[in-house]
Amino acid sequence: MSVPRPANAVPVSRWATHPAAATAGTREDGTPRVTPGVYLLTREASPQFGKPITVRVIRERTDRHTYCGWAWIEVYQLDARGNATDRRELFVRPDGMRPVQTPQPTARRTPVRSRPARAAR
User: Fold this and answer.
1) Whether pLDDT at 18 is above 60
2) Which percentage of the chain shows pLDDT scores above 90?
């Protein structure tokens, strides 16, 4: 015998648990997770990148709510040598980020004197 429910009862589906993410590499909405690494960001990642930039991802910001298919990330912007020039937070589409080879920082050379120093007079 079933128990009668009041007219303003909450549907059973509201109390159902949320399904687990499809894989560890995606969020519940299907957006891919951003893994740390070096990426090239172009207009495919966001309209703000009319001029492509290279970044090193520190982490994905999961504490901020975003639109489906978008993510907040913390990055270091890299120069042509692969050195970090600026720390930024960016709103991007993870499926538009292109991984690149890690640029090797160039070793700094110390100046070498071609002649011995003159003796004091």
Assistant:
1) no
2) 47
Residue pair 88/73 in contact by the 8 Å Cβ criterion: no
User: In 10 A of CB 12, how many CB atoms?
Assistant: 8
CA distance 72 to 60: 6
What CA–CA distance (Å, rounded) separates 93 from 121?
Answer: 68
DSSP 97-121: -EE-PPPPPPPPPPP--SSPPPPP-
Strands, sheet with 37-41, edge to edge from the N-terminal-most edge strand: 84-92, 71-78, 53-61, 37-41, 98-99
**DSSP character string of 25-93:** TB-TTSPBPPPSEEEEE-TTT-TT-SS-EEEEEEEEE-SS---TT-EEEEEEEE-TTS-EEEEEEEEE-
User: pTM surpassing 0.70?
Assistant: no
Task: Indicate the pLDDT class of residue 28, thresholds 50, 70 and 90.
Answer: confident
